[in-house]
Amino acid sequence: MLLNTYEPWKFAFSHENDEIIENSFGIIGVPFDSTTSYHSGSRLGPIVVREASFGFEKYNTVFNKELNTIFYDFGDVNVVPGNCEKTCGIIEDTVNELLDMNLRPIIIGGEHSASIGAIEALSKRHEKLTVIHLDAHRDLAFEFIGEKYSHAAVMRRAHEAGVNLVQIGIRSSSADEEEFVKSTYNIQTFKNKDVHKHMDAIEYYLTNIDGPIYISIDMDVIDPAIAPSVGNPTPGGLFISEIETILETLCHKNVVGFDVVETASDRLGDHTAVVAAKIIYDFLTLIE
Q: Among 103, 144, 212, 220, which residue has the fewest nearby CB atoms (within 10 Å)?
């Protein structure tokens, strides 16, 4: 077990962590939603997503491939409720522990601020890190309601860490965020209609990214008719088949970390939790 973690559950098909094989994956959950601004409950996301994972067979029929990736579930981070900055620091320390073990992190959220700690840790280890950010929202506010460490500012903190940013599925933002995007050179945007109408162009762009990649998936990128239990549901979202296509493209690249965040439900078997578990299951099936 890692420092600052405990084990309430494990993701299906995870290996026992008594003998670690290097260059595999380590899962941590982040049960935190203290900066949530609309629908709370994502602190329970790690539990319900893990439980939902047991509904899948080891053979993935979508991709005609067995899930053979080695990964370990180290449980949940001991967060500090009400203190996002300290919690992000704990996440960064925990991700650094995984990296020291030559494991690539997978984070189950929890609110999107969980990504800050992971991206901070990885950006210090990898030059030219690219963050692929799937979300309904830009999350590029300098601060939100006076809070710099917030679910609404996570990608601004990532950008400050020097990463290249690719935002996919965007359909809600502020005027200030749009102006910030125009003022910088290293943010690429594919809005929701681009995904629906021009997926081939997005695949081509992603295929040509060089260097290490971190994938961050906010569950509100998916249409709320499919995944309603999220912090900020927004109509016009992506479909599961589109997420599958994006993952299938990215999993041939150098992916150094991955997160799925903002599942906000306290109910086992919740639709959103099942979809989130499937995204992680698909990623683990596809990654090479």
A: 144
Which backbone phi and psi does 47 adopt, to 5 degrees?
-70, -50
Q: Is residue 4 pLDDT above 90, yes or no?
A: no
User: What pLDDT, on a 0 to 100 scale, did the predictor assign at position 42?
Assistant: 84
Q: Give the mean model confidence (pLDDT) for residues 259-281.
A: 95
CA-CA distance, 283 to 277, in Å (whole number)?
10
Structural domains of the chain sorted by starting position, each given as residue range(s) with its CATH number in brackets: 5-286 (3.40.800.10)
pLDDT on residue 153: 85
Q: Read off φ and ψ for residue 245, nearest 5 degrees.
A: -65, -45
Average pLDDT, the chain: 93
Distances (CA, A) of 59 to 55, 261, 273: 12, 25, 20
- Give the Å distances, CA to CA, from 277 to 109, 178, 211: 11, 32, 27
Contact present, 232 and 267 (Cβ < 8 Å) = no
Radius of gyration of the chain (CA): 17
Beta strands in the chain (DSSP E): 5-6, 24-30, 59-60, 65-66, 71-77, 103-109, 130-134, 164-170, 187-191, 212-218, 254-261
CA 119, chain centre distance (Å): 11
CB 33 within 8 A of CB 41: yes
Place of tokens 């599925």: 169
Residue 100 CB neighbour total at 10 angstroms: 8
Contact predicate 263/112, CB 8 Å: no
Determine the Cα angle at 71 with ends 66 and 73, to 5°.
125
pLDDT in tens, 12-27: 999 998 889 999 999 9
The mean-pLDDT minimum among 119-128, 140-149, 176-185, 225-234 falls in: 140-149
